[in-house]
Amino acid sequence: MLIETPRKYVTKRLVGNWEKGGGKKKAVELLQKLHADAKTAEAASPASIALKTVITELILHAIEGHVKEICDVLTTAGLARLSLAQSAFADALWLVNLESLEKTMKTELDKLAMEVVKAKLVPKWMLQERLQGEFIERIGFGSAETLRKKEIRVRSYSLFLQQKYNLLREESEGYAKMLTEIFHFMSTPAEQRPDPSVLTMHAQALIGFFDLDPNRVMDLILEGFEAHVSLGTRSNGSPDLDLKLCRDVCDVLSHFKIKAVTAMVGFKLQFYQKDGKHQYLHEGSNKTIITPTSLLRMAAVLIQYGKIKLEALWPYLNPTDQALVKARSKFVTDRIEQAKKVNKANLNSDERKKSVDNRGTQQNFGKNNQKLEILYQLLLIGDWTNASKILNRLEPIMFASDEGVSQVLCSL
């Protein structure tokens, strides 16, 4: 315990000879000398440590029943003018209060704190700033509960307040300049397009000058890339990719974290889920939102160039693996039941409608199956490495039976 440690500077013998032996005068001179040395030294210097040690020892003597004598020393030494000593005194009070003190010692500690404020040796705000809530409440400087609420509010403000701009309307000039840079870069022909480092440098300058949100800037780069990723369609149906643009954009995106790029693309894909409908559509609208081909193609290109990990993007895609397995099991069960009914007639039935033979019908994987569409786009751009991962992962689903996928597989 701190109370039991040997006193190096202000010893018990010095306190015992306070008036007659000149103990008070020696303590005052020591405090003034150490403050003068610490004022010109660094915070962790021996002089600063010695000053803090002396003040701590004075407080320990005070709580042992010498509050009046210690207050006289602090007043005579001119503590009100010694800024370093004031700060050290407040810190030492905080430290001593952490000790497991007896009730009488705590009472003396509270008395010392109130006396130094009453004598204007230490400002009240400094103790309110440094001491614990229950200590402040004991000496009548405030409420512990009020302090706790304010502390929670300040912590929440410092940790969760968004200092960056997220919306275009909040910093229209900065985002307008950023959009101009991005779409000028994307729309410039390959032979005239500047080096991707130029776009990176301009983007960093605009982010710093207008305090733009880097994640929002990344979103704008992805939007521009999605709009320009494909030059058209070749005669065999595969996309005519601007390969130089793909490399340049991936070079720019390399300055962002892969996890952030994956999350951004994943959120874009999740927008087009909700069973083909979306909450932003007007109530009663008959429109459906299907994942655009440009977004799927951009995601496939980013996967191919290693800017997105397929495994990291997989949880964002719709539907889930469990839903696909369940749909496949239902499809197989239905086909088995239909096969059993072939060439059978129900003579007791009044129905005259002819049954339809669906033995050759392929499974319908859905119009908004993002996993199937990602597979299709990977095959179109020739990324067999990642496409085979999907086929192996969902082997029981038999994605290869889809008409579009099977045609692309046959053309590889």
Q: How would you sum up this structure, described in words?
A:
This protein is mainly alpha-helical and 412 residues long. It has 19 helices and 2 strands. It has helices spanning 12-16, 23-39, 46-76, 83-97, 103-118, 124-130, 133-138, 144-160, 172-187, 196-210, 214-228, 243-253, 258-270, 293-304, 310-313, 321-340, 370-380, 384-393, 403-411; strands spanning 230-233, 239-241. A two-stranded antiparallel sheet has the order 1-2. Helix 9 runs parallel beside helix 11 (214-228) and helix 17 packs antiparallel against helix 18. The N and C termini lie far apart (78 Å). 28% of the residues are buried. Mean pLDDT is 82; it is low at 352-359.
Largest sheet: 2 strands, antiparallel
Give the N-terminus to C-terminus distance in angstroms. Answer: 78 Å
Number of strands: 2
Give the SSE order as H and E letters.
HHHHHHHHHHHEEHHHHHHHH
**Tally of helical segments:** 19
Principal-axis shape equals elongated
| Mean pLDDT score | 82
Structural class from helices and strands? mainly alpha
Widest sheet, order of strands? 1-2
What percentage of amino acids are in beta strands? under 5%
Summarize the amount of helix as a percent range: 55-70%
For this entry, give a set of tags.
19 helices, single chain, elongated, two-stranded antiparallel ribbon, 2% strand, 412 residues, mainly alpha, 2 strands
Q: How are the SSEs ordered, and which strands pair?
A:
Elements: H1 12-16, H2 23-39, H3 46-76, H4 83-97, H5 103-118, H6 124-130, H7 133-138, H8 144-160, H9 172-187, H10 196-210, H11 214-228, E1 230-233, E2 239-241, H12 243-253, H13 258-270, H14 293-304, H15 310-313, H16 321-340, H17 370-380, H18 384-393, H19 403-411
Antiparallel strand pairs: 1-2
